[in-house]
Automatic annotation (TrEMBL):
Quaternary assembly: Homodimer.
Family: Belongs to the YbaB/EbfC family.
Main localization category: cytoplasm
PANTHER family to which the protein is assigned, alphabetical: NUCLEOID-ASSOCIATED PROTEIN YBAB (PTHR33449)
Keywords for the protein's UniProt record, in alphabetical order: Coiled coil, Cytoplasm, DNA-binding
Name of the protein in question: Nucleoid-associated protein GMPD_03830
Pfam family, one: YbaB_DNA_bd
NCBIfam families in alphabetical order: DNA_YbaB_EbfC
Organism, as annotated: Geomonas paludis
Cell location: Cytoplasm, Nucleoid
InterPro entries the record matches: YbaB-like_sf, YbaB/EbfC
Chain's role: Binds to DNA and alters its conformation. May be involved in regulation of gene expression, nucleoid organization and DNA protection.
């Protein structure tokens, strides 16, 4: 194997190790989003797990359940979007901007 190819293989292995470490750290990365002027707060991690969901009492209106459902969905979806964006930015640093499908 030529020196150039050996160097490329070594760099690829190092990149793979860094990506693996970042994926392991995904559970530790969190994002928090509040919707409805503070009515609903969702916290998620990089493993797509909802860690907490807080709904203030005043947000609960039996006559308007749909609005509460919308607030909850928006909070969770925005938090997931936020944590994935952060993970993608970190992955981009490792890969030098190379997009690798299926990572983040």
């Amino acid at each position: 194997m030529s020196k150039g190819l050996a160097q490329i293989m070594k760099q690829a292995q190092m990149m793979q190790q860094k990506m693996g470490k970042l994926q392991e750290q995904a559970a530790e990365r969190t994002a928090e989003v509040t919707t409805g002027g503070g009515a609903v707060t969702a916290v998620v991690n990089g493993k797509n797990q909802v860690l907490s969901l807080v709904i203030k009492k005043e947000a609960v209106d039996p006559e308007d359940v749909e609005m509460l459902q919308d607030l909850v969905m928006t909070a969770i979806n925005e938090a997931l979007k936020k944590v994935h964006q952060e993970m993608s930015e970190e992955m981009s640093k490792i890969t030098g901007g190379l997009s690798i499908p299926g990572l983040f």
